[in-house]
Design brief:
6-stranded mixed beta sheet, 26% helix
Length: 309
């Protein structure tokens, strides 16, 4: 196994978190996270996937120090307290009222964090930060007027105000359209490039992989870290017209499938070179191609608790 040489900003060691259901916790105890071991390194983007109720939100609450584990150990930068890492938890949109401007939303968040920079001249104190996340010239725009990607830029800027070493994101691309999702992924990657660990929780594992967002994907199932299902090798192709390519080649390549603007061909007993030759013979120009690993869909059953893997 190859060990990541970068230091960890977050470590979970056999972490379990149970919640009591019902009004004021009067109901039975439910296990939301079960013996979870996980690490996030400096500058790494880790995507946590799983169906609803799999434990993703609980994991983010623990990682951002919003709650404590029932058992197990959480460390931030090797320490039992999060002070040095200053983890931030964000969603897809600012929670402030829509009538606030971008600058007002940042100023309010700075006041909440009690930042020393709040004493700087109000017209200039957030300009470099807004430029960093792509909000240059938007300081007077009201939150309610912003696109989904610009709202995400605002919440990322609010998180960066705290100068964190870890940012935890819950479904950060939930309200973004196809083009905006790519911009959002690039934004999070650029933040990670500053040496900040990024922990993303999403149901959309395939989307995260298509966007090249994750350095590593961890899957949760019923509160447990689940082994990723074995994959198959596929050839991904970018062509000028996927519709035309499907018409020309579907009969000759039964495994040919379309995902968005890309085509995929499962490489069972054939080679990428043979597939590309078929595309050339059919008169379909291939702009770019790469061999990738395609994972099985989420939701595959896990062994029963206590059973051998």
């Amino acid at each position: 196994m190859i060990t990541d040489p970068r230091p960890s900003v977050l470590e979970f060691e056999q972490v379990t978190r149970r919640w009591r259901s019902g009004i004021l916790g009067a109901g039975r105890e439910e296990t939301a996270l079960d013996s979870c071991t996980l690490r996030v390194h400096v500058g790494e983007v880790v995507v946590v996937t799983g169906a609803g109720g799999s434990g993703k939100s609980t994991l983010l609450l623990l990682a951002s120090a919003q709650t404590a584990p029932t058992s197990g150990t959480v460390r931030w930068g090797g320490a039992p307290e999060p002070d040095a890492v200053r983890p931030q938890l964000i969603g897809a949109r600012p929670w402030e009222y829509n009538f606030l401007t971008v600058r007002q939303a940042l100023a309010f968040h700075a006041d909440v964090l009690a930042l020393r920079s709040a004493d700087l001249p109000p017209r200039t104190r957030f300009v470099p930060l807004m430029a960093t996340v792509g909000l240059r010239g938007r300081s007077r725009c009201r939150l309610g007027e912003l696109s989904a990607i610009d709202r995400l830029r605002v919440v990322v800027a609010q998180a960066l105000l705290a100068e964190p070493a870890l940012i935890c994101c819950e479904e950060p691309l939930a309200f973004c359209g196809p083009a905006e999702r790519h911009l959002g992924a690039r934004l999070l990657r650029s933040v990670a490039a500053r040496g900040i660990g990024i922990l993303v929780a999403t149901r959309d594992e395939a989307g995260a992989e298509d966007l090249a967002l994750a350095d590593r994907v961890v899957r949760l199932d019923r509160g447990r870290v689940a082994p990723r299902a074995p994959g198959r090798s596929v050839l991904e192709l970018s062509v000028p017209s996927p519709e035309d390519a499907m018409r020309r080649l579907a009969g000759r390549l039964p495994s040919l499938a379309r995902r968005g603007r890309r085509l995929r061909v499962a490489l069972h007993a054939t080679s990428p070179e043979a597939v590309l030759a078929l595309f050339r013979d059919a008169g379909v120009r291939v702009r770019a191609s790469r061999v990738a690993e395609e994972r099985a869909p989420l939701g595959a059953p896990l062994p029963a608790r206590g059973a051998s893997p």
